Amino acid sequence: MTGDFPSGSTIYFAEWIPVSLTYNYQTTIMFSTVLFSGLSIIGAIIYFIRYKYKKQLNIITSADQAREILKSDQYVRHISNAWLINTLSIVNPFTIHDKSLLKTFKNRVILILANWYKEDKYEELVFVIGKRIDYHIPLLQLNNRKLCLSKLVKQVTLDSFLTGVLNVNANDDLLTELPDLIIHLWKNRDDKKAQTRLKELFVNNNDQFTQSEIWQQIQTILSNHSSAISNMGINDFDEKISNPLNIIVPGWETMWRVVFYSLLELLRHPKLLEELSLQLNDQSTSSQNCLLLECIIKETLRLYPPTKNIYRTHIETGEEVRIDIQHIHHNKSAWGSDACTFRPDRFQEKLTDEQQKHYLPFSISCPARHKFAYIFAGAIITELIKYCPTFTIAEESMLPSTDKLLDVTRNSYNDLLILV
Ligand code: HEM
Ligand SMILES: *[C@@H]1O[C@H](CO)[C@@H](O)[C@H](O)[C@H]1NC(C)=O
Ligand SMILES: *[C@@H]1O[C@H](CO)[C@@H](O)[C@H](O)[C@H]1NC(C)=O
């Protein structure tokens, strides 16, 4: 090393420095040491300041810690969800920090969903869903009885939610474009063209939504909290209050994923599909009471939770956390060595305390968690299987073998074709 710098050599620090500096060997060492220490100290100071003031992101993989954070008033979600206000114009309990809004909104949703628990109402829901499937399949069908499964699931789930739950008959533009627009904006939050198109779709369906009593009730709740919304410095808040995405996003974005991944697993497990079809065709049990179907949905929610991560920010320290729900769901000490295998049977028996603790697909408070999610997803899966007697993957499409988990990144299996 030292041999490279004979004493008295001229070091050009940069060609544009007009003076050449002459040093002997010792000065070089001293100068380097001082320079090095100086830079190190400055570096350490910068690092310390950034560490102190930068938002930290803590990843939570322990179920106990996750539950504590989800229960705590100190950890809020509106800060990490703030992008939803500008991108999707959402002003609901996910983006607005207000206790009264959360309580009233949630209670209303609980009442709306409870409407479907009675047997005769359930039959009505199944009927509505069946009609929506009947409508979409011919529109999506390619030649040779093939169709794109992800399009079918997204559109049927959205249409069933709008028709069945909100009582809104949206036009075809909205039903076919909205799903992929929302998914696109999730990834490309600043795409102004997509944002404009999204607004346009709702303007074009304004009359249909205005006629929905249920949507009007939700809108009234949001209007009643307009001061909380305007206090957060949100512009055009009146317009945002009348945005149906305030209810569509919580109700549909998660639901289509569980329907889609349940069907993908059934396509990979033909024996299971056959057994399920057999049970569903048995007139003595309604699909509302089909235990196998419920287990399939629960196992899908465990392996592929639609809300893979839940984000929270500490209201005082600004500390950010990402609760890794999927990691918690795959914990081997709770679920056993086959934790990453699709095995709906595990829900046939009562879960252990550890397993219950390690199961958080609905966080701790989603109003659909007790019953509605299973009824609604179950009804869609049942009707899709009934309407597609040869429900199989088309020969040109592929799924990973059953010893591997399905891919959960957005747009996975977007092009998968099935035979109907
Ligand atoms: C399979 C279906 C569903 C899944 C997996 C799911 C999942 C979740 C999760 C993880 C949360 C917590 C989010 C957070 O705290 O950041 C949540 C909250 C919520 N969900 Fe769901 N959800 C589903 C269906 C629905 C449906 C159908 C509706 C209503 C139409 C709905 C309405 C809500 C509401 C209002 C909240 C806020 C509740 C609160 O914070 O206390 N969800 N859901
Ligand atoms: C909205 O506020 C009005 C006046 O305070 C009240 O009468 C009404 O019940 C509220 N509506 C809802 C849906 O909370
Ligand atoms: C699984 O859960 C146990 C008990 O909560 C915990 O000690 C362990 O670290 C978890 N394993 C992983 C891989 O996170």
Can you walk me through this structure?
The chain contains 20 helices and ten strands. The chain is an alpha+beta fold. It folds into two domains: 1-36, no CATH class; 58-419, Cytochrome P450 (Cytochrome p450, Orthogonal Bundle). Strands 3-7-6-4 form a four-stranded mixed beta sheet. A three-stranded antiparallel beta sheet has the order 5-10-9. It has a two-stranded antiparallel ribbon with strand order 1-2. Helix 6 (149-166) packs across helix 14. The longest helix has 29 residues, at 25-53. The protein is globular and about 95 Å long. One 2-acetamido-2-deoxy-beta-D-glucopyranose binds at residues 104, 217, 220-221, 224.
Summary tags:
alpha+beta, three-stranded antiparallel β-sheet, binds protoporphyrin IX containing FE, 420 residues, Cyt_P450, 10 strands, disordered N terminus, four-stranded mixed β-sheet, Cytochrome p450
Write the layout of secondary structure elements.
Elements: E1 10-11, E2 21-22, H1 25-53, E3 57-60, H2 63-71, E4 75-76, H3 83-87, H4 99-114, H5 119-140, E5 146-148, H6 149-166, H7 172-187, H8 192-204, H9 206-210, H10 213-224, H11 226-231, H12 237-241, H13 245-252, H14 255-268, H15 270-281, H16 291-303, E6 309-314, E7 320-324, H17 325-329, H18 332-335, H19 353-357, E8 361-364, H20 372-387, E9 392-393, E10 417-419
Parallel strand pairs: 3-7
Antiparallel strand pairs: 1-2, 4-6, 5-10, 6-7, 9-10
The structure holds protoporphyrin IX containing FE and 2-acetamido-2-deoxy-beta-D-glucopyranose (2 copies).
Keywords: Heme, Iron, Membrane, Metal-binding, Oxidoreductase, Transmembrane, Transmembrane helix
InterPro entries: Cyt_P450 (IPR001128), Cyt_P450_sf (IPR036396), Cytochrome_P450_Monooxygen (IPR050665)
GO molecular function, one term: iron ion binding
